[in-house]
Amino acid sequence: MRQPKIFLASTDQASLQTLKQILQREGYAVAGVAQDGSQALRLIHTLQPDLVILDSELAGTGALEVARFINEEQVAPIIMLASSWHRNIINKTRDFPVFAYLVKPVQETTLLPAVEAALANYEKLVRLEKELNKLKETLAARKVIERAKGILMETLGLTEAEAYRRIQKQSMDKCVPMKAIAEAIIVAHELQTGQRKKEDIKKS
């Protein structure tokens, strides 16, 4: 089983060394490290890690900008490090995929459970988003097919079942999704309707 790739970003050299030792001792792959925000952005984009451990006091490009990039690119979950706990950090990162906040110096007993929880919960989140997108696509396809059925029923005098079977048959014959057949029916109908309107205007 592939070990998750973890990226570390902190200006604190001692923190980096401690994190790296704990993670590697546990068998995790440390994909890379950065000591400033600009370097972190470049390496995260290149390495595409499975988890980012990000120090809130990162030098250069701030940790919030790095977190915003990770969120926009949907790269990985984040564990945020801080010198002390304060609600301000949580409020500023509320919209980012931060799954845990740890106070430095980080201990093995808090780091490892946080890593496992972040990886597992992010995987669930990604899976739910995929399922949601699939559901949205299904609903969108259903709306298109319903509209095409209505056109066939109106123009050809078919029943709802007959209109559906016609779309289904064309889909099977052409080996394309029913949505594509339905979209073609709608486009053809709109073109015909537009043409008739032009002809009616000319006659008048």
TrEMBL record:
The modification 4-aspartylphosphate is found at residue 55. GO terms for molecular function: RNA binding. SMART domains: ANTAR, REC. Keywords: Coiled coil, Phosphoprotein. One of its GO terms (biological process) is phosphorelay signal transduction system. Residues 125-186 form the ANTAR domain. Residues 5-119 form the Response regulatory domain. Residues 118-145 form a coiled coil. SUPFAM superfamilies: CheY-like. PROSITE patterns: ANTAR (PS50921), RESPONSE_REGULATORY (PS50110). May play the central regulatory role in sporulation. It may be an element of the effector pathway responsible for the activation of sporulation genes in response to nutritional stress. Spo0A may act in concert with spo0H (a sigma factor) to control the expression of some genes that are critical to the sporulation process. This is Stage 0 sporulation protein A homolog.
